[in-house]
Predict the 3D structure of the following.
Amino acid sequence: MSGDDEDWFERALREDPERTTDTDPNTDADADTDADADTDADADTDGAETDPEPNDRPSESEADFADAFEDAPDVDSGADSDGSPFDEDFASAFENAPDIGEAPGGESGSDPFGGAPGGGGRATESFDENAAFDSTIERIDLGIEGLDNMILGGVPKRSLVSVVGSAGTGKTTFGLQFLDEALSKGDCGVYLTLEEAASRIYDTAEEKGWSFREYADDGRLAVVHLDPVEMANSLASIRNELPALIEEFGADRLVLDSVSLLEMMYDQPSDRRSEVYQFSKSLKEAGVTTLVTSEASDDTPYASRYGIIEYLADAVFVLQYVRASDFQETRLAVEIQKIRDANHSRETKPYEITDEGLSVYRQANIF
């Protein structure tokens, strides 16, 4: 990571108003000046039409890596492109995949939580959270009360976790709580946000009683805000630098909120799939346990907006609103769609977003 210009990671950390370590008295004034300039630039950008071909407008950070990637294989070049599962026709690969909203036996029901014979819905199976679990894979807790009890042994360490849900279901809170679990035990973490400003992330954590500002001052937390357009234009260099930066920072957990904004920057489905795949691959190679949030599809709450990240992730948690036909109160429910190399409950359980974060009522039924 050499070059005359600062790289994106250092620039983002320098502009973070909450990080006061190793700064001089002039930093605040410079940061305010930069923030004003960025605000004007963003205002001009918002009024302009987004270029659907971000690769035709390389950023300055990408220029430093032109020579490094000159001989790199094309991710769409076929069998020799790092084994991408999207080298073949993606539509054909999933053409015969079952509808994830279907009930067992192909029957669809109006109640997605029934599971009774003839009642449609999603089947459940008995799950003993006190059962013995023997595994050589190192595991970690999510830090969410009730949900950790639905997973025997915990989530495999260094895995890629995806949280899918519509607006207001608590995806950001899930990510912050996941990160606080590590920070409160003395570990390090990185929070990459494409949606909220860094100051807003600190404020949200503070409301839940999580001392993110103190963690940042101690050098154990980096909250980095990245503009989605800039990230899309510089994604090749960012994903190439990220593993080394994570190792240098000593991060144990990383949160990306949200991957949907990154996916939206690509008009061509093939470009979108390849970029998300390569970015996910770089996070796994970094050896850090990563959680990414994703907006749910408009058609079904059980799939992400573009239906990509759940196939790449090692674990998928679905957050959704539910309402029975004869029950007017809207409730929140969580379901563990999958966890590789782990046994987990298949039941759908209600949860609440409290002053202390998400809390799952594992002993209660959804209705």
Notes: Residues 8-44+53-360 form a domain with the Rossmann fold fold (CATH 3.40.50.300).
